[in-house]
Amino acid sequence: MPQPTTPTTPITIEAPTAAAMHQLGIRIAAQAHGGDVILLSGPLGAGKTTLAQGIGTGLNVNEPVVSPTFTIARELHGQFSDGTPATLIHVDAYRLGGNAYAPGEDSVDRLLDELESIGLDEELENPGDNTIILMEWGEQMAAALADQRLDIHIDRPISTPNRHDTTGELTSDGTRTVSLIPVGDSWRQRINQLTRPDSSEE
């Protein structure tokens, strides 16, 4: 299991629209490379899938990037900006790590067992040279994952105007606050590029 690594102070970016969130995903993809693990968290309706779609766009993925809730993991194929083939493994960890532990089993052991059962344990601990792991609801699994990763948390304040439509459901309106937390040296060296609007064009 990877040894714990102290996270860096978060960089905060505001995304006032869904288009801005999508563009941020493109910028993240421009800085990503094979072997990266990206953990994406936030409440329902915060924009996680929109950000994931932007990452898919930035990696030239032609397949739809949708929430993998019913399959837990989806493997998508695209290209890095230099034309190198890229594989994006999009994981939804919401249903992983439930409360039905065996006697003496802790949460990390349970998560690793579940990852192994779906064939993702080795991918997460040692992604391939052309593979990026993007995990939604991944914050609960940080202790069981690689010590080099980018943690992304999306927050949508309760006071945001137009946060709900007439049915009470979350809408696409309202500013999101995105916290980018590099864990390990690899992302620390790239994180500042994400605050530059033109970073996807470099």
TrEMBL record:
GO terms for biological process: tRNA threonylcarbamoyladenosine modification. Belongs to the TsaE family. The keyword Magnesium applies. It is found in: Cytoplasm. Coiled coil: none annotated. Keywords: ATP-binding, Cytoplasm, Magnesium, Metal-binding, Nucleotide-binding, tRNA processing. The keyword rRNA processing does not apply. Residues 156-167 have a biased composition (Basic and acidic residues). PANTHER family: TRNA THREONYLCARBAMOYLADENOSINE BIOSYNTHESIS PROTEIN TSAE (PTHR33540). This is tRNA threonylcarbamoyladenosine biosynthesis protein TsaE. Required for the formation of a threonylcarbamoyl group on adenosine at position 37 (t(6)A37) in tRNAs that read codons beginning with adenine. Is involved in the transfer of the threonylcarbamoyl moiety of threonylcarbamoyl-AMP (TC-AMP) to the N6 group of A37, together with TsaD and TsaB. TsaE seems to play an indirect role in the t(6)A biosynthesis pathway, possibly in regulating the core enzymatic function of TsaD. InterPro entries: P-loop_NTPase, T6A_TsaE. It comes from Bifidobacterium boum. One of its GO terms (cellular component) is cytoplasm. One of its GO terms (molecular function) is ATP binding. Gene3D superfamilies: P-loop containing nucleotide triphosphate hydrolases (3.40.50.300). Residues 156-176 are annotated as: Disordered.
